[in-house]
Amino acid sequence: MSRSQDPQRPLFSFGNPFRMILPKGSNLSPKLLDLLNTFEVTLVERLKKLKPLDREDVLSLSWMRYAMESLCAIHTDIKTLITALELPVCDWDDKWIGVYLDNSVKLLDICIAFSSDISRLNQSNLFLQCVLHNLEGPSKQFMRARSSLDGWRQHISSKNQRFEKCFAIMDSLAATIDLPKIKNSAKGKVLMRAMYGVKVVTLFICSIFAAAFSGSTKKLMDLHVPESFSWAEAFTDLQAFINNEIRNLYSSGRVTVLKELEAVDTSVKKLYPIVQDGLDPVETEVLQYSTSDLRIQTEKFSQGLDLLAKEVDSFFQIVLTGRDALLCNLRVGGNVTDSVQPNNNVEGQAVR
Known about the structure:
Layout: H1 30-50, H2 61-85, H3 94-136, H4 142-157, H5 162-175, H6 186-214, H7 232-251, H8 259-277, H9 284-332
InterPro entries: ROH1-like
Pfam family, one: ROH1-like
Membrane topology: Single-pass membrane protein
């Protein structure tokens, strides 16, 4: 494979970017320490559960769905922390607000790119439905079935142009992963430390999805987390396991690294010679088995995509509602005059 398979140089390999946020001897009240500890312990648990027991589960649609579900939970955790901190928006530093709003709109754009590709993959099933329709009836239509198989191959190999923008967004998020310095707010220090964890895990999972959908490890990131964070070990272990497995999958020369899509592709390869050369009477059983297998794998793939699409939409809504809540609070405080009107349709959302 190309040089894109080589691991990227770890980001932020210098010292703890938060030594100015929580320096040695920093005095946080027991309540704030407890809130921070609860958040970080929960984060460790979520990271450990994300590591699959079987390597074969990496980049299965079920694992990707669980990864997005976990990301939704982590973003909910940070909202819970913000509420518990009792830190009103009017006390937020302008830099915090700017970072939050900038990051949130970028995450919305990334979600749209993911949803777009899930939709593209789902559309490919229309070709396979045509194949099954032409082969499962009493009168076999081999030429039509072969044409649909060719259409499926061409559709699957097409590229989603949204990912070029998605890659640029991920680069900008990585470049600003270290958060603003906090001077005079103990609550702000806790919030920024927790938000750092959320941002790192979010970027990591997004890079996995980008690698899975784009067919390239070009933007598979290796993020360095300082050891001073209690969740650093769990994150580093998970990242090394997942990234190494993804790189191994691509280096093996597979057409796709999505497990369910690979199963469909295998079924198509078995069926194609039969519909291409015509059916010999002795191959009737083979055709029946191959057609049945294709239907089973197609249904698994379709169901997996539908469930994953729902989780991506859930994440979109969590980010969007959090952004809207902040803007609403700012408007109440007289700092923001523009309005945001959420749209529940992910595909149709125009993010500004």
